[in-house]
Structures are given as structure tokens and as C-alpha cells.
Please model this.
Amino acid sequence: MDKMITVLLLVFWGTNAFLVAQPKMVPTTNSLVQNQETVYKITQLPPSPKGGMCAFFEYTEENLQRPKEAIEKGIRGNVFVRFVVEKDGRLSNIEVIKGIGGGCDEAVVKLLEKAPNWKPGVQNGVPVRVQKTLSIQVR
Model:
């Protein structure tokens, strides 16, 4: 019986310590603030390329210029990028978060800078800025 009470106290104390140690979570904080303008990570209606993701990846395959250095060194793979889809659908704040080198990272950034506008994300019926992360394949 004493052993059971001790176990229960330890479980209660451990659970209580865990709850106290956790940061207070506030719902609807799925956003970042940049330049006093909210950038959402999740929205009710997410941004999407016009024509859908298949059309967007078709655009990247057709328009990505594989650099000479990458061809010479046989560099292929996925470049992971993060960007913001603006309220008007433009892609901004494009950054490589995991690259493959050989000039491929820069080529992907240039490609996205010239990409057609997307349909913006929508929150509460209003277009908003949304952060996206994608993998662009370099072949």
C-alpha cells in the first residue's frame, strides 16, 4: 500500500512538474511577425500555384537552368527552399534552407524569383502572407 502511494505521488509530482515546465500555449499562434506584418504558417485556405502543384513542378522542370558546374560534377538532388507567398501571390523572402551546391541553390532561387504568381492564402476571408517550404528537384 505504501509503495502504491509513493508511486502515485511520484506520478502526480512528475506530471505536475511537466505541466509547469511547459510554455503556455496560446491557440491561433500559427504565424510569424515580420516587419509588423503577420506571416502565417497555417491558414484556413493555403496558398497554391495557379494550375496546381503539378503545373508548378512542371514549370520548375522546364525552366530550371542546371548550372555548368553541376553538370560537370554530376551534382543532382533536391534543394529545399522557404519563401513567403504575399497577399498578391508574389513569392518573396526566398531562401535556401538545404542546398546541394554547384550553383544549383542560386539557380533555384532565380527560378522562384521569376515564377508565376500563386493564389494567396486566405484567413477569415482575407488574403494573407503565408510561409511555405518546398523541395525543388535538380536533375
Confidence is low (pLDDT under 50) at residues 4-29. The domain at 27-138 is CATH 3.30.1150 (Fusion Protein Consisting Of Minor Coat Protein, Glycine Rich Linker, Tola, And A His Tag; Chain: A; Domain 2). The two ends are 67 Å apart (CA to CA).
